[in-house]
User: Fold this.
Amino acid sequence: MARATNISLPENPAPSVLAAEVLQALKYRIGKDATVATPYDWLTASIKVVRDRVIDRWMKGTKEAYERQEKRVYYLSLEFLIGRLMRDAFSNLGLMEAMREALSSLGVDLDRIAALEPDAALGNGGLGRLAACFMESMATVDIPAHGYGIRYANGMFRQEIQDGWQVELPETWLDHGNPWEFERRERAFEVGFGGAVESVAGPEGADERHVWHPNERVLAVAYDTPVVGWRANRVNTLRLWSGMPVDPILLDRFNAGDYVGALAESNKADTLSRVLYPADSHKEGQELRFRQEYFFSSASLQDILQRHLSQYGGLSSLPDKAAIHLNDTHPAIAVPELMRLLIDVHGMDFDQAWDVTRRTFAYTNHTLLPEALESWPVPLFERLLPRHMQIVYAINAAVLLEARTTGRFDGGQIASISLIQENGDRRVRMGNLAFIGSHSVNGVSALHTELMKETVFADLHRLYPERINNKTNGITPRRWLFQCNSGLTGLAREAIGDRFLDDIEALGDLGKLAGDAAFREKFAAVKRANKARLANLVAERLGIKVDPSALFDIQIKRIHEYKRQLLNILEAISLYDQIRSHPERDWTPRVKFFGGKAAPSYHNAKLIIKLANDVARVINGDPSVRGLLKVVFVPNYNVSAAEVMMPAADLSEQISTAGMEASGTGNMKFALNGALTIGTLDGANVEIRERVGDENIFIFGLTAEEVAERRANGYEPRAVVEASRELSQAIAAVSSGVFSPGDPSRYRDLMDGLYQHDWFMVAADFDAYAATQRAVDDVWRDSPDWYARAIRNVAHMSWFSSDRTIREYAKEIWNVPV
Assistant:
């Protein structure tokens, strides 16, 4: 069967040439002879050989963008979950098969060394993976772009499971260096914190000026990673900032014996780029996160302005030549920072700076959860960024006066528009700041965008009714089909030709083959091979044997109560009870896979992980189940794990409480790889159903409107639980310690929450979910029907390409030609 990755560009060299270059890189760039080279040495040498070809295209594209004075997109994101880059770059350059042959001639297995490349610990979940897909798509559709973020030394954390509990360990992904990146010491910018603001007289007749004197200073040093588009159409830049001290060591303190004090500034700077999302359950963690957000936003803006000034000489043209995009609220501090730079450093007046700022920024909202719409205590904000606090108050005054002069807003609505939250502790609302400071605010699915208008930004939407728009998320098919599922890609090429490799919409031609028995058999064989690969991984890592002929039911995502892993676990317990009680029935063999990380300070999420593992221990060890049901929690879920699990899935769990998932992209990746979705009408599930058809997706549960109605009208979960025999028995088993005999009360509070408030509607949706799972069983038993539906899912996923999403951003928000 043909492979997706054996396409070559005309100028690509023969394998013998590449083999010679690998040996040369090994000798002169790593200092090793082939006879003593380690697998990591071969990995680094191979990457550097391909990286040289990336650099040629990188420099060429950068030079052309400068000469043509092309408008650039600057994408600011606290996360970039880029995963391993070797296969990405090799494939997009068309070098995969040539490098495979070259290394084979040297006695090296490409797949073996590729597995050694660590996942870059630069993100956590969907937000960061979306940013990575967008960067690849911007290069693919030929948009000059820079991504800006933080070069985390340890990232989120490496998850281990010990006695069923999540344990957080440092993710030391840089232990062997990063052969993809380039340190740019010359691109270092000072970032300040604290201090005071001085008012000084301006030139005669001009307003007074404000000068901020920070009492803390750190350096943000740039590290650049090239981002290769498909066919290497363009290579863009991911620029990540690392914190360094202005003075690495205070020598006078060191010589005086104060060794800790001498390195205090160095340690403080290093902390800024050490860990992603420090625990915010204490004030020190909150402060560090706020510092991180300002650190990378300030450095990025200084870099952008310096580049713009060097080319155009002035900043009034910034909105015409630069589109700065805020990926969620994390970089929202960039709004007052740009205002500060324009006014205090470059001499603009407030009105001109505000006009430039709003025309330059755009903002993507990713959540309707109040806690995810960041806000910062005013005292913290004012202590660390006193000048920015002044600017926030000035912006707020202008906007509130604008709202009041319309005569359309009462006091409560004015308060909801304000950048300052007044009830309780006074806080700066970063979501409102990003909204007000941008000319475009987009949601990431059709449902999410409409809910934004009705909920979190209802009054801001009334004030600026043209500002909110929708850009449904997408995924790059290069990583999420061509690379992670070579079997399916090869089968598609064999069946419909190669056009879909460059025009993903051509994948729709597969739909015509859903009724072809021979094609279905080949499709099923590819799926079986992918499931066997996952089964082998689970056996090697966890010692659990699973049957690839069983239905693989997979839920992998961040652990959060609204994503409702608990609903899935309770249904597994119910199914377990039914299998034992009714052994005579024709049960569908099923393996339920879970994976995902819980935030270190999120108690209930960590408890859900423990429950999943406790349930797995009991079910997997019970011979009366006869192997008909197994539960597996895969530790340390990341991009590389997803690349194995998604192609192996038969059933994709997208079961969030309706109205709470902004979009999701895992739902798209699963469907593209031939899984059927079981889910609520939430996020992009709505649009997936529209494209694959009602009969090719399993939808259950309350709608977003029904969830809101129940919450508003006094939902009583106890009555719902007691009316459901299966649910009440499952809850009773968990509460009584059936799955935690050594600690019977471990889950009592978690279960009591379902009786008392059930905010996430687990009880309300349980019976519908369980019934839909039995409908899944019925379809699974009819193998031809199942695979016909799976093929239709693959065929109708082309619309969810991030290339489409990026073209919409380019045309409708960034005003960049594509």
Residues 283-312 form the longest helix (30 residues). Residues 1-10 have pLDDT under 50 and may be disordered. The longest strand covers residues 216-228.
